[in-house]
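Lay summary. Proteins are chains of building blocks that fold into shapes, and those shapes determine what they do. In this project we predict the shape from the chain. Here is one chain we studied, written as its sequence of building blocks.
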Amino acid sequence: MDRAPIITLVLLLVFIFAVSLYVLNIFGIPVIQSRNISSLEAVEIREYQGERLSSIADFRENSIRGPQYINISEYRLTVTGLTNRTLNYSYDEVLEKYPHHSKVITLFCVEGWDVTILWEGILVKDLLEDAGPYPQANTVIFKSHDGYTTSLPLDYIRDRNIMIAYTMNGVTLPPERGFPFQLVAEDRWGYKWAKWVETIELTDNPNYRGYWEQRGFSNTADINQNY
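And here is the predicted shape, written in a compact code that computers can read:
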């Protein structure tokens, strides 16, 4: 039997199939239904540049009112106080407007545990410089969604490139860990690491005391000193 007509027929069918796919694409007719495509959950990084990292699961819940679940469509980050102007950003606006930075930093809790995490976030000083601090401003107050507060010296914020983080180990902060933003207070005890940060306020009162500081904890919270 002559195979030539069969080969010709096969080639013709392949050609027709290819042309059909092209036409479908030109007219915007989906070939693969989008409902069959799903996103996989992010997997946290457990090692970075040869350094072993803690897990997100290694944290212990010790917030004053339990985990906060923020409606991100309504969330606003406000920078106010002794500033030339007040800033008010949505979550996406913060991420789009400011440079992103990452660093491996260890959180030490006064309860006796610690975690070493790769944090990624926005430098607090970038936000403050946009707001324009008054010359007399010397202290930065952080206020959280659950009513928690703490403060840090403005010079420390600037000199140490302190950031508010939005990811840990490559994963977006879970609600339990402070989504949308957690303060990463390097070399300060864990009670300075405010979660669910909503307001950053500049003041000229270096003696301002936050939630735990009012209850007897050190205002400096230096990990090399008693708390």
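What the prediction tells us: The chain has two domains: 4-36, 47-215.
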